[in-house]
Amino acid sequence: DAKTTQPPSMDCAEGRAANLPCNHSTISGNEYVYWYRQIHSQGPQYIIHGLKNNETNEMASLIITEDRKSSTLILPHATLRDTAVYYCIPNSNSGYALNFGKGTSLLVTP
Amino acid sequence: EAQVTQNPRYLITVTGKKLTVTCSQNMNHEYMSWYRQDPGLGLRQIYYSMNVEVTDKGDVPEGYKVSRKEKRNFPLILESPSPNQTSLYFCASGERASNQPQHFGDGTRLSIL
């Protein structure tokens, strides 16, 4: 499995964009980058995933560098409810264990 | 609504008393798995199943059993629970061999006294 590096914690003011970086320099060619989050002991929640191209959905945007060694999750207008631990997880398909690592604890403040 | 349902959500029990945590999904997913989450250790996979009657060990299988008799259900069985199995447990499901995301249940908090 590809190893990931994420900052342990970040702060963001409510209403501002939250940009969460992830380093995955050992990612394989067939591995997608998935982002999940966990809000205080609730079940992990899927946010977005991508292979090479940038992706956007109703929750977030995902920017993947051209060499695929890093990515950034963007929450365009963070709210207090976005306070959570965010995990960046390279994974080749849904039939494999997700390696959650330690993630980034995002605190959104009023 | 697509769901992974775990029961019970909370359980306090005593050492040695067999218990089962149920997990059910309504998405016709082939792949299902169990994780436990402990402070400082993150989420670790206990067991997984690629399809009916096919199960395999994850990273921390000791003290647990699973079965997969039907596609939708994947119960976690603790035959003789011990205090070190006090933890937060999550069930997940997904489409095997696809790039679609996995779905997680809301969790089961077990306390073994």
In the sheet with the most strands of chain A, the strands line up as 1-9-8-3-4
Computed structural class of chain A? mainly beta
Shape of chain A: globular
Which pair has the most extensive contact?
Answer: A-B, 19 and 30 residues
Give the topology string of chain B: H per helix, E per strand.
EEEEEEEEEEE
Radius of gyration of chain B over all CA atoms, rounded: 13 Å
Number of strand segments of chain A: 9
Helix/strand structural class of chain B: mainly beta
Q: For the CA atoms, what is the radius of gyration of chain A?
A: 13 Å
Q: Which blocks of ≥5 consecutive residues of chain A have pLDDT under 50?
A: none
Query: Which oligomerization state do the chains in this entry correspond to?
Result: heterodimer
Query: What is the straight-line distance between the termini of chain A?
Result: 38 Å
* C-alpha geometry of chain B: globular
Determine the number of helices of chain B (DSSP H or I, runs of at least 4 residues): 0
Question: How much of the sequence of chain A is in beta strands?
Answer: over 45%
What's the helix count of chain A?
0
- Sheet with the most strands of chain A? 5 strands, mixed
Mean pLDDT of chain B: 95
Low-confidence residue ranges of chain B: none
H/E element sequence of chain A? EEEEEEEEE
Q: Approximately how much helix is present in the residues of chain A?
A: under 10%
Topology:
The complex is a heterodimer of chains A (110) and B (113).
Chain A: E1 9-13, E2 18-23, E3 32-38, E4 45-50, E5 55-56, E6 61-64, E7 70-75, E8 84-91, E9 104-109
Parallel strand pairs in A: 1-9
Antiparallel strand pairs in A: 2-7, 3-4, 3-8, 5-6, 6-7, 8-9
Chain B: E1 4-7, E2 10-13, E3 19-25, E4 31-38, E5 42-51, E6 54-57, E7 65-66, E8 76-78, E9 87-94, E10 103-104, E11 108-112
Parallel strand pairs in B: 2-11
Antiparallel strand pairs in B: 1-3, 3-8, 4-5, 4-9, 5-6, 7-8, 9-10, 9-11
